[in-house]
Amino acid sequence: MIVIHATSSPAGTGHLSGTVVGIDISKARLDVVSLPAAELPLTSFDNDAKGHAALINRLRELSPRLIVLESTGGYQRAVVAALAAAALPVVVVNPRQVRDFARAVGILAKTDAIDAAVLARFGASINPVMRPLPDAQTTALVDLLTRRRQLLELHTAESNRLAQTAAPKVKASIKAVLIVLKKQIDAMDDDLDGLIQQSPCWLEKETLLTSVPGVGTQTARTLLGCLPELGQISRQAVAALVGVAPINRDSGSMRGKRTTWGGRKIVRSALYMAALVASRYNPVIRSHYQKLLAAGKAKKLALVACMRKLLVKLNAIIRTKTPWRTSLETA
């Protein structure tokens, strides 16, 4: 099974035998190391179609059980697609996890060669949990959502500048840019509409998600593109995946504050805005929010708890394919 993206495997899975390859990716080059090191000494390939073909030929000779690389802002996409198309076991891991691992084993230096070796060692030691490769349609959805988010950030920045300037020529310039950005955002919305309409499955899920008071179209689409596991895993697992599950901070007799940390920032941001609206207009979430405030919880803490409750509800709605109106007492 060809896979992409990963989290650490549960403790106690043990060390698996077989060659593990680490690939450090830059814009122009791929630095490759394997464990055992004798299988593939440090070598480099160009990060282009010709280099990918040469890399694939070399990896086929090795027959590795795992190929590990990091998400590097887009430079990894072409090589991941090529490796997956060649039926090679590629997994993309979180860079933060790899750096934490490197520090834990005493590797503080950072070069391309060292990073490739750390990735191979990370894969051999941690055995990342692998998930299915997103299809082209899901990748297109995520790309459109990302671009729309970027345009909104630019629009917000220009709007702020407009409010802060008094110069007529500057105002005119900013207004012209805002018009262009608005057209671009509208175009992204049209493209997203078309993409969703092409998929009966996505259309059904979007209808189910937006049946929940507080969940708008953009939140629903963010969940579709960036949280494909929704409805397929447990409430505890989905909360941990997004980063809204409380984490214990206990040691001996000391009981620390429970905090949320990590997870998928884009999903969490969308969920925050949905929970903020739901805390006013969704009867179930509003009641939960007010109950927490009455118990003395801080507003931000209460809102995070509402995010978790809302996410659990959404997970159940997608799992059972039951709209909000008839699912209030489920989940």
Task: Describe the protein's architecture and organization.
The chain has helices spanning 49-62, 77-85, 95-104, 112-126, 136-164, 168-197, 200-209, 217-226, 235-242, 265-281, 283-294, 299-320, and strands at residues 3-7, 20-25, 29-35, 43-46, 66-70, 90-93, 129-132, 250-251, 254-255. The chain folds into 3 domains: 3-132, Nucleotidyltransferase, domain 5, CATH 3.30.420.10; 136-198, Methane Monooxygenase Hydroxylase, Chain G, domain 1, CATH 1.20.58; 209-326, no CATH class. The longest helix is centred in the middle third of the chain and has 30 residues, at 168-197. A hairpin with a 2-residue loop joins β8 and β9. The protein has 12 helices and 9 strands. α7 crosses α8.
Residue-averaged pLDDT, rounded?
Answer: 87
Q: Look at the structure and name the CATH superfamily of the largest domain.
A: Ribonuclease H-like superfamily/Ribonuclease H
Radius of gyration: 23 Å
Q: How many extended strands?
A: 9
Q: What is the string of SSEs from the N terminus onward?
A: EEEEHEHEHHEHHHHHEEHHH
Oligomeric grouping of the chains: single chain
Largest β sheet strand count, sense and barrel closure = 5 strands, mixed
What is the terminal separation in angstroms? 32 Å
The residue fraction in helices comes out at 55-70%
Classification by helices and strands: alpha/beta
Q: What is the number of helices?
A: 12
Q: Would you identify the regions where 5 or more consecutive residues have pLDDT less than 50?
A: 1-14
- CATH class of the largest domain equals Alpha Beta
> How much beta, percentage-wise?
5-15%
- Count of domains: 3
Under CATH, the topology of the largest domain is which?
A: Nucleotidyltransferase, domain 5
The CATH architecture designation of the largest domain is: 2-Layer Sandwich
Provide the spatial order of strands within the biggest beta sheet: 4-3-2-5-6
Large-scale geometry = globular
